[in-house]
Design goal:
Number of strands: 12
Oligomer: single chain
Largest sheet: 5 strands, antiparallel
Strand content: 15-25%
CATH topology of the largest domain: Heat Shock Protein 90
Order of helices and strands: HHEEHHHHEEEHHHEHHEEHEHEHHHEE
Shape: elongated
Radius of gyration: 32 Å
């Protein structure tokens, strides 16, 4: 009865008829009770014939889509079922008024197909990239074996195992050895990033002591720290819960890359490492998902601060993007970006976040926040 009252109001019908979109009035069963001229054009139907059909007969799952649009107050896209318009896609918006749905239709076929093609190409590109990275990782031994041979034999010659060499020969062999080691290091970093980009790591989440892990990783860099005479400090906040539930090997790789980057960038001064549990309000501001019963101990923040040369703003904006560095004049940042891009991907896998704060000649701070698995 209310539906019929609505249809009897000439003013309401005149407004709907004048709209540029296709408009249908549909009852709860999907039966079309009224249609404006634009809707018949979109659906390529004679106006008197359109009332013989239900919305589901004209649009795939049409009634469900209309109800969904009405409940969510958002538009949805449906595909026409009629043979004449089978390749037509309509944007559907809907509003529930009394006992009827006011359904608005707009042709978005071109945009829909364009977006769909872009998404298909994007997924194809992702698959190709993943396959490429997997191929590269599988070839790692074949790629690195010749370099290991060059490094090993050149080092043997430097150590005198190949007999006495002249001054010029020794100089050339040392250059070969040095450059081969640098190439191997770069190759390791590229393979590490490739493996990370394609999520080829195996995950085994378990409980471990994060402070002990940091100290273990730092031992691998003792020589470099001593050679530069850097002052190293580790500070844990009061009440810090050292044991966390996470992926230890992934966390180890994150720490290795950050420490390595920090040490390489710092020639004099110090490196400090700080741990604390950040406030949940701060976590929320960063856009990290927080469980309802979480406490401040649910997250761990690790900050590594050095007194190095710092990073200029133009480099800081692309520091996690190694491919962007290829077009920049300063090629020395490529390896740093490869390491930090690896860190960013790995931290993301742990459902955390990483960011860098730095100013030229003022040093750099690398910040990482990860869930701890603690309540």
């Amino acid at each position: 009865m209310v539906f019929k009252n609505f249809l009897s109001k000439a003013k309401d019908i005149d407004i709907l008829a004048s709209l540029p979109d296709g408009i249908l009035l549909v009852d709860n069963d999907g039966k079309i009770e009224w249609a404006n001229e634009e809707s018949t054009v979109l659906l390529k139907m004679v106006k008197n014939e359109i009332f013989k059909f239900g919305l589901n007969e004209l649009i795939e799952s049409g009634l469900d889509l209309a109800k969904q649009a009405a409940q969510s107050n958002k538009s949805v896209v449906g595909r026409c079922k009629s043979v004449d318009v089978k390749d037509t896609y309509l944007e559907i918006t809907s509003k529930l008024v009394s006992d009827c749905l006011i359904v608005s239709l707009r042709d978005v076929t071109q945009n829909y197909k364009t977006v769909t093609n872009i998404l298909i190409e994007h997924e194809s590109s992702k698959k190709i990239n993943k396959d490429k990275n997997a191929f590269l990782v599988k070839l790692s031994n074949e790629l690195k074996s010749p370099l290991h041979s060059i490094i090993g034999f050149s080092q043997a010659m430097i150590d005198g195992l190949g007999g006495e060499m002249g001054e010029k020969q020794e100089k050339y062999i040392k250059i070969i050895n040095k450059n081969s080691n640098e190439l191997l290091y770069l190759l390791d970093k590229i393979l590490e990033l490739s493996k990370t980009e394609s999520n080829l790591h195996e995950y085994d989440f378990q409980i471990f002591d994060i402070v002990n892990l940091v100290q273990t990783v730092l031992k691998n860099h003792e020589t470099a720290i001593k050679e530069k005479n850097l002052n190293l400090t580790i500070e844990a906040s009061e009440g810090l819960k050292k044991t966390i539930f996470s992926e230890e090997n992934i966390m180890k790789l994150i720490l290795q890359n950050i420490f390595e980057t920090s040490i390489n960038s710092t020639d004099i001064g110090s490196i400090s490492i700080k741990f604390h549990h950040p406030e949940l309000e701060f976590i929320s501001q960063l856009g990290i998902e927080i469980e309802e019963d979480a406490t401040d101990k649910a997250f761990l923040m690790l900050s590594v601060t050095d007194t190095g040369a710092g990073i200029v703003e133009s480099d800081l904006s692309v520091i996690f993007e190694p491919y962007a560095q290829l077009d920049r004049a300063n090629k020395k940042n490529i390896v740093k970006s490869i390491s930090l891009a690896t860190v960013k991907h790995l931290v993301k896998y742990l459902k955390g976040i990483v960011w860098i704060e730095s100013e030229p000649m003022q040093g750099t701070t690398y910040n990482v926040i990860i869930p701890t698995g603690n309540k």
